[in-house]
Amino acid sequence: MYSEKVIDHFQHPRNVGEIENASGVGTVGNAKCGDIMRIYLDIDDNQIIRDCKFKTFGCGAAVATSSMATELVKGKSVNEALQITNKAVMEALDGLPPVKVHCSLLAEEAIHAALWDYAQKKGIKIEGLEKPKTDIGEEEENEDY
């Protein structure tokens, strides 16, 4: 059963689309379920995320977690955005069914992938940021649960 927030973010997703000349773009997927998530970041000179958009191909939970993830990072510093976890995304949505937890992992990794792309373009290192995975498989799903 989905929470009202998940249904709302699926039916009325926030921040859908692309950002031209984005500061960072991250694309991740889950080969098992076929979900693909792309997050675009517009980051200013003070490393504050001015705008964030997404494009997701997947189930309702994937769309909802993408939408919520963009809401959570907007206005945050790069370092604050790096701290957003899949658990934070799930909590903001009032939970996800166990079989949909991987969608929140995709959202977390898509943020990290976009931050990684930004760091690569700028030639900087973001403390605590590791090279992201592009395919989120079952082994990651079971790590935290």
Tell me what the structure shows:
The protein is of the alpha+beta class. It contains six helices and three strands, in the order H-E-E-E-H-H-H-H-H. It has a three-stranded antiparallel sheet. Helix 1 (4-11) packs across helix 2, helix 2 crosses helix 5 (101-122) and helix 4 (86-92) packs across helix 5 (101-122). The longest helix is centred in the C-terminal third of the chain and has 22 residues, at 101-122. The radius of gyration is 14 Å and the shape is globular. The chain starts with a helix and ends with a helix. Mean pLDDT is 91; it is low at 139-145.
Short description, anyone?
With 145 residues, this protein is of the alpha+beta class.
Strands of the biggest beta sheet: in what spatial order?
A: 1-2-3
End-to-end distance: 19 Å
Helix segment tally:
6
Structural class, by secondary structure, is alpha+beta
The total strand number stands at 3
> Are there runs of 5+ residues with pLDDT below 50, and where?
139-145
Give, in order, the helices and strands: HEEEHHHHH
Q: Name the beta content range.
A: 15-25%
Question: What's the shape?
Answer: globular
Helix content: 40-55%
**Mean pLDDT level:** 91
Radius of gyration: 14 Å
The biggest beta sheet is recorded as: 3 strands, antiparallel
